[in-house]
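Prompt: May I have another protein with tokenized structure?
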Amino acid sequence: MRLLIVEDNADLAAWLAKALRQTQYTVDIAADGLDAEHMLHLAAYSAVILDLSLPKLDGMTVLKQLRRAGNKVPVIILTANASLEGRVAGLDSGADDYLAKPFEIAELEARIRAVIRRGHDVAAPQIVVGDLVLDGKTRQFSLRGQPLQLTPREHAVLEHLIMKAGATVTKASLSEGVFGFDDVADASAIEIYVHRLRKKLEGSSIQIVTLRGLGYLLRHV
């Protein structure tokens, strides 16, 4: 899962990015509204954490233009303005959730998980595909009732696939979900991670199928 943090407070942005990366998200940071617009045009994100008080282009304008362009990425607004009027304005402009500063990282993580589930039309706290289970609260995988040991990149690929189980996922889409702008990614990296995942899923009812020229499909057999 790839997130975009739009926050001009460099210390806060760095702290958020570090905390979210530790929970196996890929994170990009934009320090102003114009950078955010540019990055949203270049990459597909699972969710956006958006401050409203931004230089160059304010957060509310970024949000309105995002929705005007038809982009439905979940957006969580972060702001020091916790007034009812401010919350209503943000939600009416297309925000999915609203969190006032200061806040606890655990609450932000819970809200991120919730808006991503809603964005994928997943209401249940668990996603189950055959022997494979993704816990929506902890974002941990288990296979046949046992914890599945994954590297952060393997986790990102498998999470992307299970969220779209039964549908084809392109290699480009996987790459966008796994690698941030600051990451150096080999062209064959996704193939390597898929190969490793297949090894770890051997003997289960789960397959990752390669659809030549199209992408990958996670399915229960």
